[in-house]
Amino acid sequence: MSADGGKATAVIAGAGPAGLTAALELLRRSDLIPVVFEAEAQVGGLSKTINYRGNRMDLGGHRFFSKSDWVMRWWQDILPLAVEPLEGDSALRITYQRRSRDLPVTARASSESDCVMLIRRRLSRILYRRRYFDYPLRLDASTLHKLGAAETLRIALSYARARLDRRSPERSLEDFLINRFGERLYRTFFRDYTEKVWGVRCQEISAEWGAQRIKGLSVGKTLTHALRRAFRPLTAIGQRRTETSLIERFLYPKLGPGQMWEQVAQRIASRGGRVHLAHRVVGLEHDGARVQAVAVRDEASGSVRRVACDQFISTIPVGELIECLRPTDPDIGRVASQLPYRDFMTAGLLLRKMRSSARPSRMRAANGMPPDNWIYIQEPDVRIGRLQIFNNWSPSMVADAGTIWLGLEYFCAQGDDLWSMADGQFLEFAARELERLGLIEPCDVLDGTLVRVPKAYPAYFGAYDQLGKVRAYLDQFSNLYAIGRNGMHRYNNQDHSMLTADAAVNSIIHDGRGKSVIWSINTEREYHEEVRADR
Q: Which listed site, 79, 137, 445, 491, has its alpha carbon 20 to 30 Å from 186?
């Protein structure tokens, strides 16, 4: 049967940022009817917002920032910026840059509306040896005092040595980081945290991960940024020339990142598209050159139906896609099934207060809430990787403004000791870790919840170096487009995933031309927004 009464259709597997962007762009720019099948009961993928008793959780922390003008406009078209003063400024000037000129925002709305984007100031720190260091590191008096004169000298000498004797070629993430920060700084602030996140040594992770996630960040870039920030207007969010890790302002939906994708899903439905929740793509019919139909299982009833399609866009994990295609070459299936992932758990804890030592004295508050968006936990005696303070992303993320709503992030693998722990036991374990760090008293925990996210982070080790074989096989299908984070097994940001969706729509509109552009996004130091902005 046809997905939409005989009209030409594009079936899209997955309702995350990539899948929903593709669906809306197809409706805006083509005659194809997008039909989206999402296995979960909620849209947004990793960018969804979990609502627990009125307290909202952001899975991973999603800053709405992009060097792409198209992405920035796209977001503002869905959720306009709230007009509100920023830290006492009587007038708010919001611009972002495209080459040499400023572009105005596309729309503004009253901050009393829920359907708005807020401008947030980014603050993140590193907790290391029970002391707080600004992230990115600032070579100011505070940092030097905490490190000590002797350690500061060792870091400087190590950086100088790395600049004079670079590791070449850069094969591993360790090579990549030492070349940019020196071995001493790498071992102090990068190695242990990275290995906590990925569960393997930095020598086993491809340098490509650093090239895509850290890009041009280095000690030199950090120092240059520190000089520039002194002359940047406090209210400007245009930071195109700023490395992503260094940005200081970003946009954020008032009700969390999932609000963006819920709004997009509504627009898709209003234009005649379809978004089916709790429906999983479990099979594909093809002739080796084109996908002809998909098999979709209703997760509630268990029934499976056949849906014909003219185009197929996949954002599901590569291994699941290859399993649906059933290639005759067993090596393709082997590589796809062995692509590694890092799984993820967030424990939400609601507190009446925290210990005031979590705040610098100049920012001390009555309830001790840290001023950060998130805190990287470098301490070796706890398993927690990062701590989010949802109040500081948006006040509307918290049901009761008098409470503190935290997200404790743990990186794990399905089936390991963390993943297998019962929910209640895990929440107690998480609270004890914060107590050990000196951040809370267990008696101040009011409530909590736990969210498990499988396949959250595509990993760059193991069978990853053979991903090219899988891509070559997928490229044989003229009407199949693998996009997004899991669809390409690439650690993309939200905006990268949207750009891959846009590239796929461009290719579909132009009869398959330009398909290779999808795989070039987020591989260069500037990931093709300049080209995209000219459309």
A: 491
Distance, in Å, from the CA atom of 121 to the CA atom of 88, rounded to the nearest integer, reads 13
What's the CATH number where 391 sits? 3.90.660.10
The residue whose two tokens read 């490509």 is: 208
Q: Is residue 133 part of a domain?
A: yes
What is the rounded CA–CA span in Å between residue 182 and residue 156? 8
Together in a domain, 466 and 418: no
- Same domain, yes or no: 324 and 351: no
Query: b/e per residue, 168-190, with b = 16+ CB within 10 A?
Result: eebebbbbbbbbbbbbbbbbbbb
Based on the fold, state whether residues 418 and 435 are members of the same structural domain: yes
With a cut of 90, say whether residue 35 has pLDDT above it.
yes
Distance in angstroms (rounded) separating the CA atoms of residues 144 and 159: 15
CA distance 217 to 198: 20
Tell me the one-letter amino acid at 280: R
Per residue in 232-283, pLDDT (tens digit) is 554 445 545 555 444 688 999 999 999 999 999 999 999 999 999 999 999 9
- Quote the domain boundaries for residue 515: 9-46+259-339+461-533
Sign (positive or negative) of CA dihedral 452, 457, 462, 466 = positive
Assess if residue 115 is contained within a domain: no
Question: Is the pTM higher than 0.70?
Answer: yes
Q: Are residues 421 and 488 in the same domain?
A: no
Same domain, 321 and 177: no
E strand spans, 1-80: 9-13, 33-38, 49-52, 55-58
d(CA 489, CA 504): 16
424 and 514 both lie in a single domain: no
Q: Tokens 């400023």 belong to which residue?
A: 102
Nearest-10 crossing angle of helices 494-509, 17-29: 30
Distance between CA 336 and CA 469 in Å, rounded? 9
522 in any annotated domain: yes
Kindly state whether residue 411 falls inside one of the protein's structural domains.
Answer: yes
The secondary structure of 375-389 as a DSSP string is EEE--TT----EEEE
